[in-house]
Specification:
281 residues; alpha+beta; Thiol Ester Dehydrase, Chain A; ten-stranded antiparallel beta sheet; 16% helix; globular
């Protein structure tokens, strides 16, 4: 399919419905190693946990080579073989309530071709509107990037270092079990998160890829801990380089204004993997 024809997908929309139920909450909490007792105190869904709801339920016959839903169903049929989250913007007008039934309407907003060091890139931006029967109201945009297959011997991109010193830092290591659990609760069958041979042989990574939304959720939580008693209002993030399970990674936060924070994740070499800005209210 020509790149011009890909733009025919702009404006396509679909709506899914889900309920913020206790069973799924318990699975998310266990994946992040949160105390089960803390769930009883929750009135609203913690920031980032919405990614474990509204799953795309695709039969095995509709799965592509990488484990994702085959392209050409909702997302445009981009022929480039590699795909990852590139960036996201989240606006929470009113957080989703525990037990609330929510409609999520997703719309293809743009399809854009670019060229980088690794070759041709296709960026697809998708908008999501969340409206619950108890007043829950969120808006999200996320951008997916499609890339060409890795070329053996190609030099990696120049690393990007953090621009300033953090107020607080935390070092973590993601295990294959945690990545499997996160894939399970999000019904994400993308093989880069659980199939080591596929990661190394087909995608050129040295280990399992840590999910972009998982890293973003950890950064949201770190920002929220700096403003106890307040809710996340906006969160804008950009993925710069992948994190893999075979190395520790670090999270960092710096206060930039009243109730505003810069947060970022670094790989084991101290290079930026994800940057984000969070505003509380």
């Amino acid at each position: 399919m020509s790149d011009n024809a890909l733009t025919d997908w702009i404006g396509r929309s679909r709506t899914t419905r889900d309920t913020i139920d206790a069973s799924q909450l318990a699975k998310i909490a266990a994946t992040f190693d949160c105390p089960a007792a803390a769930l009883d105190q929750l009135a609203f869904l913690p920031a980032g946990w919405h990614w474990a709801f509204f799953a795309e339920i695709t039969p095995l016959s509709g799965i592509g080579r990488d484990g994702h839903q085959a392209l050409g169903e909702f997302l445009p049929p981009v022929t480039l073989p590699r795909r990852m989250w590139a960036s996201g913007d989240l606006k929470i007008t009113r957080p989703l309530s525990i037990g609330e039934t929510v409609d999520k309407t997703s719309t293809i907003m743009s399809v854009e071709e670019k060229h980088g060091r690794s070759g041709k890139l296709i960026f697809v931006r998708v908008g999501h509107e969340f409206h619950g029967d108890r007043g829950g109201d969120m808006h999200e945009e996320h951008q997916i990037v499609y890339r060409e297959a890795p070329v053996p011997g190609t030099s990696p991109p120049e690393p990007v270092l953090p621009p300033h010193q953090p107020d607080h830092s935390l070092t973590l290591t993601a295990t294959p079990v945690q990545l499997f659990r996160y894939s399970a609760i999000t019904f994400n069958s993308h093989r880069i998160h659980y199939d080591v041979d596929f990661c190394r042989d087909e995608e050129g990574y040295d280990g399992l890829i840590i999910h972009g939304p998982l890293t973003a959720t950890l950064l949201m939580d770190m920002a929220c801990r700096q403003a106890p008693g307040k809710q996340l209002n906006t969160f804008t993030f950009r993925a710069l380089s992948p994190l893999t399970h075979i190395h520790p990674f670090s999270l960092h936060v710096r206060k930039t204004a009243d109730d505003a924070f810069s947060v970022w994740a670094c790989n084991h070499r101290g290079e930026l993997a994800m940057t984000a800005d969070a505003v509380m209210t």
